[in-house]
Amino acid sequence: MNISIQEYNDSQAPSVKDICDVLAKTICESHPQAENKIWHAHPVWFLDGNPIVGYSKLKDSVRLLFWSGQSFDEPLLHNEGSFKAAEARYTSLEEIDIPLLKQWLAKAATIQWDYKNIVKRKGKLERLK
Fold first, then answer.
1. What is the pLDDT of residue 48?
2. Where are the beta strands (DSSP E) in 33-121?
3. What is the pTM of this model?
4. Residue 121 has what pLDDT?
5. Which domain holds residue 30?
6. Residue from 128, 84, 89, 108 nearest 27 by CA
7. How far apart (Å, rounded) are the C-alpha atoms in residues 52 and 67?
C-alpha cells in the first residue's frame, strides 16, 4: 500500500482510522495489482489508470465509493453523483461486512466504466470489459 494512504489513515481519529485500515487492507488484498494513491485528497485504487474504488472521511462517516458501483446490482450500495458511482457509508468498524465488501471489490474489477477518458470524451462514459 502506498505510504501516503497509511498516512491518511493515521491522521484520522482512532475509530475512523480503524475503519480506514480495514478498508485499505481488504482492497489491497483483493486488488494487489492496483495502483493506489491519494487522489483529490483521498485514497483511491486504479486498474490500468481507471479509478475503481476509494474512501473518504465525511463529517459523520467514512464513505466507500465504487466509481462503477451503480452497475453492480447491489442493493446495499447507494447511487452517488450524476455518473455511475455508488457508495456505502460506515460509522463503526462492526458495520463492515468483509465477505460482502470482497464481493463488491470483485465486481469493481470486472464491471468498469471508463473514467480515465471522461474528459477526452466530454463527460460521456463508455463501458469497459
1. 93
2. 35-39, 42-47, 50-57, 62-66, 78-79, 86-90, 112-113
3. 0.92
4. 78
5. 3-128
6. 108
7. 5
For residue 110, is pLDDT > 90?
yes
Identify the CA nearest to 8 among candidates 57, 64, 61.
Answer: 57
Q: Which residues pair with 65 in a beta bridge?
A: 54, 87
Q: Which is more confident, 1 or 91? A: 91
In this prediction, residue 75 carries a pLDDT of 96
Domain with 79 in it: what CATH number? 3.90.1150.200
Question: How many structural domains does the chain have?
Answer: 1
CB atoms within 10 A of CB 81: 11
- Separation between Cα atoms, residue 42 and residue 4, nearest integer Å: 10
Residue 79, pLDDT > 70, answer yes
**CA atoms of 54 and 91, how far apart (whole Å):** 16
